[in-house]
Every structure is written in C-alpha cells, then in structure tokens.
C-alpha cells in the first residue's frame, strides 16, 4: 500500500523546478517521469484523498502538507491528463521571503538554485 512515508521519499527524490512564469506566486512543480506516471497519478490521488480544501483566489483547491511543503494538483480524479504536481512552502513566512527573493532577483530560465541561493 502506498502511504505517506512512501510519498515523502518520492517527493524528496524528485526534481523540482521553480515556476518562473509566476514569481508573484512562488512555487515549484515536478513534471512526472514517463516511466513513473502511474506512481505520480497515485500521488495525485493520495493528495486528493488526504488533503484539505483551501481557497486560492475564487477557486477552491485541495492541499496536502508533507514536511515543510504544501502539495496540490490542478486536476481532480481520475486525473486523465495530469503530468505535474505543484508545491510551495507550508509556512507562510517562508512563502513571503520566497516571494520577495524571486520577485527581486528572478533566476535565469533553466537555472537551478542551490540551498545557499534560495530563500531563507
């Protein structure tokens, strides 16, 4: 059975990319490796089944907190075309620092930030 500890390992080993197109809403996304699409769809379902609803503007989204991040999908079951999962800091103070950092010093497209370069 796929449980929280399984998905913690999955997200900790995934390649996350900062969403450069929305620096005013700092978040990262992970595009599913084609070989693991079934696992990531299972994660999307896990998020949906174990999340809580929150408002994002006028839309309701379902978020699941794992560690220091909140995860969400833009789709709902059965996830017919899902290819990515999003995440942002669960702690809004980190979110604010990230927002300030990335709006002030946006990284170049394709740049990968290290821990020392990212928001503190």
Keywords:
3 helices, six-stranded antiparallel beta sheet, 6 strands, disordered C terminus, 120 residues, alpha+beta
Short summary of the structure?
The chain has 120 residues and is α+β, with helices and mostly antiparallel strands. It is built from three helices and six strands; from the N terminus they run H-E-E-H-E-E-E-E-H. The protein has one domain (4-102).
Query: What percent of the residues sit in helical stretches (DSSP H or I)?
Result: 25-40%
Q: Which word captures the global form?
A: globular
Within the largest sheet, what's the order of strands? 1-2-6-5-4-3
Alpha carbon gap, first and last residue: 36 Å
Describe the protein in words.
The protein has 120 residues and is of the alpha+beta class. The chain has one domain (4-102). Helix content is 30%, strand content 24%. The chain contains three helices and six strands; from the N terminus they run αββαββββα. It has helices at residues 4-12, 37-50, 92-104, and strands spanning 17-18, 28-31, 52-56, 59-66, 69-72, 84-89. The protein has a six-stranded antiparallel beta sheet. The longest helix has 14 residues, at 37-50. The protein is globular and about 35 Å long. Residues 99-108 and 111-120 have low confidence and may be disordered.
Present the secondary structure layout:
Elements: H1 4-12, E1 17-18, E2 28-31, H2 37-50, E3 52-56, E4 59-66, E5 69-72, E6 84-89, H3 92-104
Antiparallel strand pairs: 1-2, 2-6, 3-4, 4-5, 5-6
């Amino acid at each position: 059975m796929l449980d929280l500890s399984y998905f913690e390992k999955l997200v900790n080993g995934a390649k996350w990319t900062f969403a450069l197109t929305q620096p005013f809403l700092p978040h990262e996304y992970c595009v599913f490796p084609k070989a693991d699409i079934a696992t990531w769809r299972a994660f999307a379902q896990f998020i949906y089944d174990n999340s809580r609803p929150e408002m994002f503007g006028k839309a309701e989204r379902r978020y699941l907190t794992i560690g220091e991040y909140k995860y969400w999908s833009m789709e709902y079951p059965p996830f017919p075309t899902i290819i990515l999962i999003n995440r942002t800091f669960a702690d809004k103070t980190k979110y604010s620092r990230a927002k300030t950092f990335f709006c002030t010093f946006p990284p170049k497209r394709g740049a990968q930030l290290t821990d020392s370069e990212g928001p503190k």
